[in-house]
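User: Just a sanity check before I run the rest of the batch. Below are the structure tokens for the first item. I only need the designed sequence back.
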């Protein structure tokens, strides 16, 4: 294997390296951060990595739109792109719902830090009479 083949292989897998990095980063942010807004940002990063995971193999080098023609022999599959458009709409709706919930949590507890909310909730339950 020559140096050129190695660089082509690395270049071909570059999108997968970026995808895995974004998945790990997004999952880490969701798990490790206590701020609810930061958790939503991590969720958005994770969703973006899933989009890349589906789109990366959908494009073929030298491929064209799937329109039958004698001039082209290699066609790219349009299905991953269509699925990602739907996933983007669902992702935006999920993010909007999450932000709405964070606003309601902020109104109810006065903060958006997970630890503070749990402390407030535990003191509220400790003050309630036992059955």
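Assistant: Here's the designed sequence for the first item:
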């Amino acid at each position: 294997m020559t140096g050129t083949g190695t660089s082509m292989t690395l270049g071909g897998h570059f999108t997968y390296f970026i995808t895995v990095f974004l998945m790990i980063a997004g999952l880490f942010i969701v798990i490790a951060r206590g701020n609810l807004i930061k958790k939503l940002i991590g969720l958005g990063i994770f969703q973006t990595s899933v989009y890349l995971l589906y789109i990366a193999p959908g494009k073929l080098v030298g491929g064209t739109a799937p329109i039958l023609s004698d001039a082209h022999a290699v066609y790219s599959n349009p299905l991953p792109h269509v699925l990602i458009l739907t996933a983007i709409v669902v992702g935006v709706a999920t993010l909007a719902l999450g932000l709405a919930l964070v606003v309601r949590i902020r109104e109810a507890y006065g903060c958006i830090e997970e630890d503070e909310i749990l402390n407030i909730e535990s003191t509220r339950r400790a003050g309630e009479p036992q059955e």
